[in-house]
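Quick question, first post here. What does this chain look like in 3D?
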Amino acid sequence: MERKLKIAIIGAGSTYTPELMEGIIKRKDSLPLHELALMDIDDRKLSIVGGLCERMTAAAGMSCQVIKTKDLDEALRGADFVLGQIRVGKLPARVLDEQIPLKYGLIGQETCGIGGFFKAMRTIPVMLDIAKRMEELCPDAWLINFSNPAGIITEAILNHTNVKMLGLCNVPYNMNKSIRESMELPNAELTYIGLNHLSWVTAIEQDGKDYLKTALDMGLNSETMKNIPSTGFSKELVQLVGAIPSSYLEYYYFKDKKLKLLKDAELSRGEKCMQIEEELLDIYSNAELHSKPELLSSRGGANYSEVAISLVDAIFNDKQEKHVVNLLNHGALPFMEDNDAIEVTAVIGKDGAKPIAVSEFDNQHIIDYMRMVKAYERETVAAAVEGSEAAAMRALMMNPLVGDYQTAHDCFQELKEAHKDYLPQFK
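> Answer (accepted):
Ran it through. Tokens below.
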């Protein structure tokens, strides 16, 4: 008897949801979807985006039941997979994360620096609540989270709840794809090491040969994300690092240049996303539309459907495929602690993810950088879970994009006040 499958999307009013629907439709033969629960707290977006999702499944000839709901428990009850893509405070909160730090000479960004810190403060308590409800209502379900900051949320959930969970990001997929295409090595096995939004490719192997040195001699860069104003890495820098950095490393390696770009920009990335979101919602409202529109690719979430739904497929159908995911280390990287959330390649099957161990790793720059930022992430989780301002200050003083105590303190206080409605742990 064919197993019935229920997928719940939490934050389904996101304009990214048609990406996920595209992935589900593409795999409708291998994913026997019986029920799709679309949950969001925003009536307007849930109605518009959910309506498009209903039309997409109907046009694909899928007979699954589509439920639009604001009730988290209804969405979770009996789910096999829960896809998390929430944005606490919506895009206006992101804009505050981007703009307020600039007043203090700090980078304002969605996942890096003090802006990313506050996104974690808002998001972790809500994700922990979702995980606790999953323990009650769908204890065997997998939580696949791509709410940002994905790595820090992975660290919080896997160390503070009992849910089965993997963190996900489209950066590794896009990065690996662009490197294989640039090197004309379609079957290359890449060694991908790091934390979410702090990662490097350290080997490019095909037919028994490692092409990393060739790539470094070329000064090869991976594809940049659409949400990052990119200047790229010089040949000298990639050779100095001894690996190909992800585009998010520009915030760390070119901090001053990035800060100037952000200060000089007419609109923050969040403000641009608000404009794009309204355009998309207007397009989605067209009752004749039953496919994902091209404009969606101008957001930073390209290939999310491929990344997220292929991961669901690999677990559900025990495919034993290799995917880059966020999970607890458990010895995969000997230089990190077992309960550190890391972003590495793992083999995915019905029992979840088994990280591929990387032994004899000797890039000391990467080791030291990962340890430094992981110390920040640990304190960030403590601050979010305990509502500890002391932990918050320790975190921000360790963050390479913040550092200075007085600056961190003053900016923290202003952002805490700006986001007070979404920070119950600090009340």
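DSSP finds 16 helices and 13 strands in the chain.
Residues 198 and 249 are 6 Å apart (CA to CA).
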